[in-house]
Design goal:
By secondary structure, this protein is of the alpha+beta class. 43% of the residues lie in helices and 22% in strands. It contains nine helices and twelve strands. It has a four-stranded antiparallel sheet. It has a four-stranded antiparallel sheet with strand order 2-7-4-5. Strands 9-10 form a two-stranded antiparallel ribbon. Helix 6 crosses helix 8. It starts with 7 loop residues before the first helix and ends in a 9-residue tail after the last helix.
Length: 241
């Protein structure tokens, strides 16, 4: 991407703010920008690394992408992450160049920057600091998957929902991020349950004043009550919240 491109300034600001590229020297980012290609994807755009590795490495500029797995027998989906501005994929593909059963789908119109995997690896070889960021980024996602696995096996569904809401709540803006405006069917996949069960728990949280729902949008009303549910691993009746 050249500096005269209309998307250049927004794109390079995305890199500067991304945890994957934090503290990367300006000259290194400028060199990387020359290799990046801008793309806009419609909602429902689908990619898969299940059968062969993705040939490109992607950086999200705007929008939302769900990263998920599908059970081959039951065809049930479990969403691992919601990727948004500054997130990248497929990181694992940079390390071993092997297929893995992960799929990506845009949940809304999404803008990305893309670079051929080989070019990204050459750039990282030239700037070893980028390799450190790669390992840190991978480590943070492995820890999140560890927590998710533990929660799925040991925490009640209401606790998992409350934890998701707390983790997604932006205290400065006073609203949810990443999961804002997601339909309940997608929220259910993030906590490993069905839409019917999720809807029941949303009513419970509404009943105890922890959240409100307006035009299908969840608003956090009382973080202390959500935290009480998470910390106590307790599933209270609305009257006891």
């Amino acid at each position: 991407m050249q500096t005269e491109n209309s998307q250049y300034l927004r794109s390079i600001e995305t890199l500067k703010d991304s945890t994957f590229f934090k503290a990367t020297p300006k000259d290194a980012l400028a060199e990387l920008m020359e290799k990046l290609v801008y793309r806009k994807w419609d909602k429902g755009t689908y990619l898969s690394g299940a059968y062969e590795p993705l040939p490109f490495f992607y950086i999200v500029v705007t929008g939302k992408i769900k990263e998920y797995q599908v059970d081959e027998i039951s065809e049930k989906e479990r969403t691992n992450f919601i990727l948004s501005t500054g997130d990248v994929f497929d990181v694992l593909n940079l390390l071993d160049d092997r297929p893995h059963k992960i799929h990506w789908e845009t949940l809304e119109e999404t803008e990305v920057l893309m670079i051929r995997k080989e070019e990204m690896l050459r750039w990282m070889d030239k700037y070893p600091q980028a390799q450190k960021h790669l390992y840190q980024y991978m480590a943070s996602h492995v820890r999140m998957l560890e927590d998710m696995t533990a929660d799925l096996s040991m925490r009640p569904t209401l606790v998992r929902l409350s934890k998701l809401l707390i983790q997604s709540f932006d205290m400065d803006r006073g609203c949810l991020r990443r999961i804002d405006n997601l339909p309940n069917s997608e929220l259910a996949k993030l906590i490993g349950t069905t839409r019917a069960v999720l809807n029941r728990h949303i009513q419970e949280l509404k009943g105890c004043g922890a959240i409100s729902v307006q035009r299908k949008k969840i608003n956090i009303e009382n973080t202390d009550r959500l935290m009480m549910i998470v910390q106590n691993s307790h599933v209270p009746l609305a009257a006891h919240c």
